[in-house]
């Protein structure tokens, strides 16, 4: 029976997320809980990789996440599968139908010295203006960065699945990698604390580094935009400790000198990376050779931002939901190519070209 006609079905199709340390996380959603796995063939060997933690295959969740080595998926095809599991007892289980995706061709990392990166932030769940702006690029990008505040809160699991995961698939189709940068609004709500585990980063948080063809990138989690004791948080956050730990991790990184790295960027939802809960990240980013920090948060579009003006790198604010007028939206694609500059091409929701500029890095 085709999965679309079955009571057990995929409610959000899979996207392939960067998660650092040479791995992707393939994440999808079903309408009922069950198990999940990814299959593919690499160098003549067939692989089945399960969604498991500590040796136990996860079967009590509707969100499924499978870590796969990047070299196995780049330029390859894959399928994802789930089986309905009604209940797992101590010595038996009640299981039902298995559903499978079609075969998906994954482009992976670019092979040359150029990469096109579409960066979207501050959608705040309002998809139509964002879709209209992104349509101008006609799918011509090979990395998607969701740069925070894709949802306005994560109170319920549905806020995460429908918006963060759902929008990731809409703009990637499971065919190109996605990097997710958490925004301050996505730290809010009872399900927000569950989100980091699905990405399976080595750090345990939503911060990591990754390589995408000629680009080395750091994904930073800037946390909340107010102190922990602010009344909005009801005494139920501890971002001081979290950001202190992230700072220790960032300070411990060494500049990656691997062959083929031509560009170095960082993605951070909030642009003031020199002031994160009393921590200044500028020196560590400079040590990594960072050329540009790409941010959102301010609901503005600034290719020449004054944030971090004392740093050796430049800071760009790439748009998103614009606060002026009728709440427009700006989407921006950054092309990293030889020549010492990055091209920023941006369109708004009315399909007007907002910018086409070379930025010296």
Question: Which short descriptors sum up this protein?
Answer:
361 residues; globular; Purple Acid Phosphatase, chain A, domain 2; six-stranded mixed β-sheet
Structural class: mainly beta
Q: What's the story with the biggest beta sheet?
A: 14 strands, mixed
Order of helices and strands: EEEEEEHEEEEHEHEHEEHEHEEEEEEE
Average pLDDT confidence is: 96
Beta-strand proportion: 35-45%
Number of strands: 22
> Percentage of helical residues?
10-25%
Low-pLDDT parts are: 1-5
User: Rounded to an integer, what's the Rg over CA atoms?
Assistant: 20 Å
Write up what this structure looks like.
- It is a single chain.
- This protein has helices at 70-73, 127-134, 157-172, 195-199, 239-251, 282-287, and strands at residues 10-18, 23-42, 45-50, 52-53, 56-57, 61-69, 77-88, 93-100, 104-105, 115-120, 143-146, 177-180, 208-212, 215-220, 263-268, 292-295, 301-302, 314-318, 320-321, 329-337, 341-348, 353-360.
- The protein is mainly beta.
- The protein has two domains: 3-105, Immunoglobulin-like, CATH 2.60.40; 115-360, Metallo-dependent phosphatases (Purple Acid Phosphatase, chain A, domain 2).
- Strand 20 and strand 21 form a beta hairpin.
């Amino acid at each position: 029976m085709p999965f679309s006609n079955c009571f057990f079905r995929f409610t959000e199709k899979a996207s392939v997320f960067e998660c650092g340390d040479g791995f992707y996380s393939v994440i999808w959603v079903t309408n009922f809980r069950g198990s999940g796995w990814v299959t593919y063939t690499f160098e003549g060997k067939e692989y089945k990789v399960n969604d498991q933690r500590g040796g136990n295959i996860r079967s009590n969740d509707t969100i499924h996440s499978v870590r796969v080595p990047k070299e196995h998926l780049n330029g390859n095809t894959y399928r994802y599968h789930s089986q309905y599991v009604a209940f797992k007892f101590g010595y038996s289980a009640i299981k039902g139908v298995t559903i499978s995706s079609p075969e998906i061709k994954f482009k992976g990392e670019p092979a040359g010295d150029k990469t096109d990166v579409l960066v979207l932030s501050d959608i705040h769940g309002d998809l139509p203006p964002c879709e209209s702006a992104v349509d101008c690029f006609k799918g011509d990008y090979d990395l998607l960065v969701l740069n925070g505040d894709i949802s306005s809160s994560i109170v319920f699991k549905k806020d995460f699945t429908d918006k963060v995961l759902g929008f990731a698939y809409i703009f990637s189709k499971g065919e190109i990698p996605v990097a997710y940068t958490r925004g301050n609004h996505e730290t809010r709500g009872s399900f927000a604390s569950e989100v980091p585990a699905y990405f399976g980063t080595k750090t345990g948080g939503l911060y990591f580094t990754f390589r995408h063809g000629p680009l080395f990138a750091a994904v930073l989690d800037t946390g909340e935009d107010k102190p922990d004791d602010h009344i909005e948080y009801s005494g139920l956050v501890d971002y001081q400790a979290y950001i202190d730990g992230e700072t220790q991790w960032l300070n411990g990184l060494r500049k990656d000198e691997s062959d083929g790295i031509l560009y170095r960027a960082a993605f951070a939802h909030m642009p003031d990376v020199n002031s994160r809960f009393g921590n200044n990240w500028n020196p560590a980013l400079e040590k990594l050779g960072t050329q540009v920090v790409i941010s959102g948060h301010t609901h503005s579009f600034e290719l020449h931002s004054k944030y971090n003006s004392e740093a050796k790198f430049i800071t760009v604010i790439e748009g998103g939901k614009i606060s002026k007028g009728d709440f427009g939206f700006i989407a921006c694609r950054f092309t990293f190519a030889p020549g010492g500059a990055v091209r920023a091409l941006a369109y708004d929701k009315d399909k007007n070209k907002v910018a086409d500029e070379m930025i010296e890095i």
